[in-house]
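Sample intake sheet
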Amino acid sequence: MRKRDNGDLMKEKIIQELHAIDVLINKGKCQKALDYLQDLEVKNPRDKIIEFSKVGFLIDIGKGLENSQIVKEGISLGEEILENPDFEKYKSKLYYKTATGYMSIFLLKYENKIEQIVDNENLQRAKSYFREAIKEEDDLDPNLRKQLWTNYGNWSEKGKKNKTKPKNRDLWRAWRRSTIY
């Protein structure tokens, strides 16, 4: 049996702290989660696990705080590290997280506004990133794979149900026509 070294202990501590941030987000304590994330990042600069996790956390925190700027920060980080070869094996998750970021921007800004649904750039980017994640989906665990296909289906022409779909019939039709392949 291998003895755990200081690096293993540090990695384990970081993972526990990331889990604590996730719990805060899920409890709706997004500002506290953001403060915790920023503090963790200061204590562990350039940590790859934190950098990867930060993408999804910023998107979730920004949506929870209804702050599109924080969501955009998560999207930018996701797009930036998608280009980094160190994250090659995590591309599917990064595409997925970036897609959910664009969905969040769309929902924060334009939900139920017909003029913003058709050909909306954020909605189109979300769909594009979902398609990229699907191309890389072999790397995803089964639960995330299901969520990916569900989200893509909900935001594409083939989607049958969406809990955030517009309530107005004309709005719904415009939203359904907004798919670009």
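Comment: The radius of gyration is 18 Å. The first helix runs from residue 6 to 26.
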